[in-house]
Amino acid sequence: MKEVSIIGLDLAKNVFQAHGASADGSVVFRRKLSRAQLLKFFAEQPSCTVAMEACASAHHWARAIGSLGHTVKLIPPAYVKPFVKRQKNDVADAEAIAEAAGRPTMRFVAPKTEAQQAAAMAYRTRDLLVRQRTQTINALRAHLAEYGVVAPVGVAHIGRLAALVESDDGALPEAVAALGQMLLAHIKTLNASIETLNKELQQRAGSDDKARRLMTIPGVGPITAAALTTFAPPFETFTKGRDFAAWVGLTPRQHSSGGKERLGKTSKMGQRDIRRLLIIGAVAVVRWAARKGAPVGSWLARMMERKPRMLVAVALANRMARIAWALMRKGEDYRDSAMAAA
Questions:
Q1: CATH number of the domain at 6-101, please?
Q2: Cβ(113)–Cβ(146) under 8 Å?
Q3: Chain centroid, CA 245 distance in Å
Q4: Which CA distances in Å does 212 have to 197, 202, 215, 226, 331?
Q5: Average pLDDT along the chain, 342 residues, taken 10 residues at a time
Q6: How many CB atoms lie within 10 A of CB 167?
Q7: Rounded distance, CA 286 to CA 309, Å?
Q8: For the chain, what is the radius of gyration of the CA atoms?
Q9: Contact 80, 96 (CB under 8 A)
Q10: Could you give phi then psi for residue 130, rounded to 5 degrees?
Q11: Strand pairing class (252-254; 6-10)
Q12: Counting beta carbons within 10 angstroms of the beta carbon of residue 134, is it exposed (0 to 12), middle (13 to 18) or buried (19 or more)?
């Protein structure tokens, strides 16, 4: 029997599919495993490479299987799909994972530690609560608009609606006022939870040297710094800043052929949380520059003279991603607070 070189593991909730292959790619075994059998099976296997798709529970199993002496590699699901032969099933998926992991040019996802996943959960929980707050505020505004009450969009103007709902002047039917108070109570609860998570993320960023260094970049606050240190792979993974900006999804989509370069809109193919936060921070910097004025002759001033603001913001977000990569690789703080570098 040939020695196993790589095992492709198709993850699931209860039934897992393992595909063992030798160094030349030939099949050594195909095995269906229950959740209770999985770790016992890998404990009995000689040390080899175990490949999985970077999907739900992948980081947990990467840590557990890695602790048994195996080398674990996580592959983005999009990179596995081309290796699936004809029909899609667990056996074909496991085989495709093993084949994809054996490619010399394959790109892998770095397994996350428990601390990184906890930080990611804090960020994602905050993001969920912010969206729920927005939904609740919009619902309240829409309901009250049916009774002739209109207020500007935004969290800052919720006080106007609250004052009307809680007043005793009879402007609103009693049932409507009661339901409005219920929605306001929910918004208040969400505000308290969001504030708690904001403080937690700020504390994480303040105690992390990498996050503190990233916050020296204009437009990067505690939330963005926490997202960069949590969701981004080790910065040593990228050979240059442009590679990191491309991973985030802030470079143009390319459709070139025959030596002709064709660049389109921003690809948006990377890490959406980091990309969104960098663009939000860049928009804030551009707005500040529009009010206060960017330094004469700076990159930002030259861009704002000839380009629309949103385009400048996206270009600035790309620049911020490259700066973040440079700071992490060099271990330095950002020194040009005006974005004035040529």
A1: 3.30.420.40
A2: no
A3: 13
A4: 18, 10, 5, 9, 11
A5: 89 95 92 95 95 94 96 94 91 95 91 90 94 94 89 85 83 89 95 94 88 92 91 89 91 80 77 92 93 85 90 93 93 69 42
A6: 11
A7: 7
A8: 25
A9: yes
A10: -65, -40
A11: unpaired
A12: middle
Q: How many CA atoms lie within 13 A of 263 on its CB side?
A: 4
Contact between residue 54 and residue 75 where contact means Cβ atoms under 8 Å apart: yes
Per-residue CA distances from 102 to 2, 34, 73 (Å): 17, 25, 10
188 neighbors 159 (Cβ within 8 angstroms)? no
Would you say 238 and 248 are in contact if contact means Cβ atoms under 8 Å apart? no
Residue with tokens 């385009």: 311
pTM over cut 0.85: no
C-alpha span between 17 and 69 (Å, rounded): 20
- What tokens does 78 get? 């999009």
Both tokens of 52, joined, read 């999985």
DSSP string, 157-223: GHHHHHHHHH-SS-SS-HHHHHHHHHHHHHHHHHHHHHHHHHHHHHHHHHH-HHHHHHTTSTT--HH
Structure tokens at 79: 């990179």
77: CB partners within 8 A, 6+ apart: 53, 54, 55
Domain ranges for the chain: 6-101, 114-207, 210-254+267-330
What's the confidence (pLDDT) of residue 215?
A: 92
